What does this fold into?
Amino acid sequence: MFVAEGVLMYFTEAQVKQVFALLVENFPGCYLVFDAMSPFMVKNQKQHDAIKHYSAKFQWGIKDIRDIAKWDSRYRVRQVKFMKDAPAKYYQRMSLFNRLIFSIPPFKNMYHLNLAKLG
It folds into this structure.
């Protein structure tokens, strides 16, 4: 199992595809846990309260994480968790505004944790 938390969004899509390809070729059948965001969030990153202060920029976002299967038939998303799926004790720590935003259909897919099997 490999974990890429807070990493892939800084890569280009070509680089993300390369990471997946390297893993499936060298570790067939491995699992990858990673977070991803929507292209909307990448496009609006300057609105993010922390990211706007850094020179590193988000580059990769994906509208539907299951689309990685189009990259290679060996990639399978096993599980997706959205912010609203967080345990209540963590979800309640978010501001009311964020909880509302993450419950509205266009925005609830902005950020998610994923489990994929490669190979």
Summary: The domain at 2-118 is CATH 3.40.50.150 (Rossmann fold).
